[in-house]
Write a structure and sequence with these properties.
- Helix 1 crosses helix 6, helix 2 packs across helix 3 and helix 4 crosses helix 5.
- The strands form two sheets. The chain has a five-stranded mixed β-sheet, with no helix packed on it. A five-stranded antiparallel β-sheet has the order 5-6-3-8-9, with no helix packed on it.
- The chain is globular and about 65 Å long.
- The protein folds into two domains: 141 residues, Immunoglobulin-like, CATH 2.60.40.680; 182 residues, no CATH class.
- By secondary structure, it is an alpha+beta fold.
- It contains six helices and ten strands; from the N terminus they run E-E-E-E-E-E-E-E-E-E-H-H-H-H-H-H.
Length: 338
Amino acid sequence: MKKITCALLSLLLCVVLMLSTTTVLAAEDSLLSGSLHQHGNTLLLNIDLAENAGITNGQLQIHYDSTQLELIRATGSDLWDTQSINHGTATLLFASSQPQTAGGSLVTLVFRTAAEADVYTASVSVLLRKDLETVEETVLNFSSRTFVCDGKNCPSAAFSDLSVDAWYHNDTDYVIASGLMQGFGGNAFRPNGEVSRAMIVTTLYRMAGSPRVETDYSFKDVEDGMWYAEAVAWALETGIAKGIGETTFAPNETATREQMATFLHRYAMLCLGDGATQGADLSGFSDSNDISGYAEAAMAWAVSEGLFQGFGDDTLRPGAPLTRVQLAKLLTVLEQGS
């Protein structure tokens, strides 16, 4: 789980939530603001666009110390694309036929720390236009701050059914702030809701940077335009997921813990370049014989990587449904490392 994948070179990026705000060195009437916050061994660089900005195209060039930081993912509006990432510089391009007026989060870059430092820094050279007219040209300079949740400014606090005192708090904070998971209507996150196959491939697709998909799919239960359609096509293209049959994907089928381990194992090998590992000895778990044959290697890998730790009764519960907060934990550990 250590390096930027080739998919980052062709990103189409999804909307994310801001972690918090920070003062940025830019003109007082700048259309942009942002923050760089450290969250464990990852840093989130968020850039926000003011309402009624009216831009139709532009470019962001991000500069950072590649000896201290490793860029692992960029997410944002699906109008952004990554032109290049090379030795401490990433260039993102933007183009739209409609002026952008809604404001909100524009793009988030996720870094992993490559070396310890008291403060991490990054700068962003900005060029934004409305058609051929330049409406913003500036440099934003960021210094990192350690994210501290006081129970009010946490991303989880925006959802009425999440507790900032629960075991999952840090995990839901991370997946919400980094755009990996989103809520439902009525400020609900549904922490104990069961996870579907569509949810799994969608979160992994976001983690990969929402790359362009070239593969056509012909599943009768995946309609064009559905929120998970691109993710399903990507999962098939990469080999991370397969259909239930030749014509069905079963996007709404509840996923089990062993199925999730299998998805994650394939993602680590095919997208992150992690080599095969021997995996943990599962004989100490009383229900290890209940693991399906196809999932044995994946479950052993997941335990060895710290993704699954088992329950207090020495079980892994491979066939149990996966909940949304359990998914949040798995995604956080996968991206931040165990």
